[in-house]
Amino acid sequence: MSPRTPDSRPAPRRDVVVAFFCGGLVAAMVGLSFAAVPFYSWFCRTTGYGGTTQVAKALPTYTTDRVITVRFDSNVAAGLPWRFEPERRTIDVRLGEVVTVYYKVINEAARMTAGQAGYNVNPTTTGIYFEKINCFCFTLQTMKPGETRDMAVVFYVDPKLVDDSEQNNVKLITLSYTFYPVQVPDQAAENAAPGKSGHI
After folding, report:
1. Global pTM value
2. Could you please report the per-residue DSSP string of 131-181?
3. Would residue 47 be called left, alpha or beta, if left means φ above 0 and alpha means ψ between -120 and 50 degrees?
4. Alpha-carbon span 50 to 40, nearest angstrom
5. Cis omega (within 30 of 0) on the bond before 3?
6. How far apart are CA 177 and CA 71, in angstroms?
7. What does the domain layout of the chain look like in residue ranges?
8. Rg, the chain, Cα only
9. Which residue from 43, 99, 150, 162 puts its CA 20 to 30 A from 116's CA?
10. Which tens digits make up the pLDDT trace of 77-107?
11. CA–CA separation, 163 and 171 (whole Å)
12. Measured CA distances, 153 to 4, 10, 100, 164 (Å)
């Protein structure tokens, strides 16, 4: 029997291995995309990475005369057919002043969709002073076809910022949100199916 040459190796088995590897890679990428928001939430809250804001435990007890402009940024990740924008792009706030702003979200799809928002502030060093009292971030938002929703953010910039010499030149803080697509929960999808009634 003559020795087998490289060209005579059976290809089907190799093709199966390659196909299996590619399928596993695709499945892993899909799984990571759905896990992105929970992981991001855990990572940022644990490490304070990337300008993660604080969750206010109490209302501020005083305000200062120093004014900072807060700019509101909005983004939607690929695969989520939503329009997402703030009611206003900037606002001037005194340190310690409690402020409420709204973002408008519109589901432009003809089907029910769901998303979750991640956030950060810039400059990242100001995250420790940006206190959020109420926010829609990291909360699953399920929206009916064509639905419009106003989402509130209640926050203040801690007046202790004036005691941090590294923040002396800060005149602008950008609060940025990004909505990521999330699989519609089974119960919500069932309620939205033709012939079904229910509240979302």
Report:
1. 0.68
2. EEEE--TTS-EEE-TT-EEEEEEEEEE-GGGGG-GGGTT--EEEEEEEEEE
3. alpha
4. 10
5. no
6. 11
7. 45-191
8. 24
9. 99
10. 999 999 999 999 999 999 999 999 999 999 9
11. 15
12. 70, 62, 6, 25
